[in-house]
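Mods, move this if it's the wrong board.
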Amino acid sequence: MRVVSMFVTKDHFIFIVNSNEVNDELYAAEGFPAGNPIGFLAEGEASIFKKTKIDDGWELYSGNHISPNLHIRSKNSLIGGAGKLNKTVYINVIPREDAHLGEWNNINNATDSETAEIQNANTSFQLDSQCLVDVSRDVDTFEIIESSASTINENNISFNL
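Not the wrong board. Structure tokens:
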């Protein structure tokens, strides 16, 4: 499971991805970024993948991305990453004015009023965190690992009060 916290500062929009399981998808670009984001693997280890076209397959870029590690992503590249340890923290920093453009608009959870505040350069604040029991990825290929969804029968649940 990963938890994504988002912070708005005077000049930047910051995503902090905190993952606690091996194979957690840390990030997978769904489109080209509006600006040149800066990524920082603050804790843990990850496999990093790249592609140059949206319809291309993922290619391994680094199988041993070990923290601390800083990288700058080009506007013309698509990056993805999967955690290789049970504790991985990945930070992504983008220009504040780009927080509502391109792929960033799809992954921030700002309400309409928060989106308006993001555009006001006089405020700094934290958006609500998103808890995402989301996507698992193979750390060698970046292929999605299908989860086996289990159904719990409510007759098997008991509460001790």
